[in-house]
Structures are given as C-alpha cells and as structure tokens.
Model the fold of this input.
Amino acid sequence: MGYSFGNGRNCAWSRSSVIADQTWGAGKGPTISLQSLYDDRDQRRPWVYMTSGDYYPNLNKAGGGYTYKIINRGDDGSIVEDKNEMCAHIKKYVIGKSADCDGNVGLNQDAANNIYLLRLADMYFVRAEALMGASDETSDPQVLDLVNQVRHRAGLWSNDLTSLTYEQLLQERRMEFAFEGTNWFDILRYRYRSGDQKAIDFLNSGWGTGYNRSAMYIQKDGTSTSNENNMSQYQIVDNKAEWGAYDPIYISTEAFKLPIPAAASTTSPQLLGQPVDYVSPYN
Done:
C-alpha cells in the first residue's frame, strides 16, 4: 500500500487510538439531519455511523471489541474519548487497527479496504429516477419495487413505500450512500431538474428534515458523569443564543458556481470571456 495508494478514510475518520493506529476523526460525525433520516430498525445505520451503545466485535479485538460511548472514561475517571457535536462518529470505511484486520491497515494513512465506486443499489435508484421522469411524485409499481428492494436489504420489510416523491428518493440515496461522496452530485441533479432555489432550499433544510447544518447536541443542565452516556441528557440546538457553536448556516445559489482557477485563466484568458454559441460544422 503506502501513502496515496491505500484507503485513507480509516485514518481520517476513525474516532480515536482505541480503534485505530492513526486517527484524525475525533471531531467528525454524521450531521443531525442525516441521523434523523434513519429508522430505528435500519440495519445500515450502525455500519454508517456509531452512536451510544453500538458494539463492534471487529474493532479493538484485543480489548474484547468496542462499545461506543458518547464519553468514554478510563478506570481513573479521565476521559479517553470525548464527545463531539453530533454524539456520534463515522463507522463506514473504518476497519480498525492493523491487528484487527489481518494487517490490512498501514502507518501511511493507508488501508486495504476498497472505496465504493459503483453499487447495485445505485443502479436500482438510477433506474427508479429514470422511470419517475419529470414527475415530482409517483406511485409507479416499478419505481416503488426498486426502492423497496433496497430498503428490504436494510431490514425495512414492514413499511414499504406506497408512493415516492423526488425528494424522498434523494433521502433514500443519502442514507444508502452516506460518506461515499455522491450527495453533492444528487443536489446538482436536483438543481438541473427543478432550479437553483428549490435545490438550495432542500439542502439548507437538511435534506428536508428541518435540521440546519448548524444543529448540534449539547448537554442538558444536570448531566453528570453517571448519565453522560444517555442520549436523553442531550438536546439539539442550532444557534449561539442556545449555547450552540454556530448560528444557522445557509448556502446561497452562488455555491453552484465554481471560479475558474487562476492557472487556467492565465494560460487561457479566453476562459474569462462571455460564453459563445457552439457551432457544429455538421449543422
């Protein structure tokens, strides 16, 4: 493997040295909006992110496995792993220490686990989207069957979708492909489909959940070390007035426009001019 050859996510996203030989992921985790999308019965959820009480026998094998605690303390009461703003950390792509996975993690920010590029579930969703066409909502049995098959694999057998909006389809994609680098492209596709404002409103509303990206967990008054790992002792805030770290963060439609790199415009100054119509010699 080696630096720039292996999968760097095990290092970049792992929570602490308890579960990784190298780690940068202590402050990273799923947004509150992403967490809110998952059904309690969704079997994907603990393999996407870790939260209070989750147990992973494949991590920290030398210590008997790893049980996620919001705040993990040592025998002397000192904090071994502190909480982050999401009270959760990333699990996807995190495979543990070298000793946990037959030496498939190196010391150069590299691991041997594959990065997802194309999955069968993506083909199901792409076909479902194509069948929806320009409709904002559908009850087409073919569309519902494709989406429900993915949900069935996740253990969601008892609540099949009987209709589907385009935004719901994007939410299904978000859950299935979390941390796989596809979500921004979904938002761009929504923009081409329905316009800048609708896409940016969907993004700013936390993909329709109502949770702005500033939303975070803070401890309630009266929380002590005896109950600090109980989620009921935390509340969600999304502004500084309520002791959050941030006020609501709103992205404008300007985010859809990327500047031309200076290196490119210097060598090709025509790029800074107004676009011109393309004329094909075959017209």
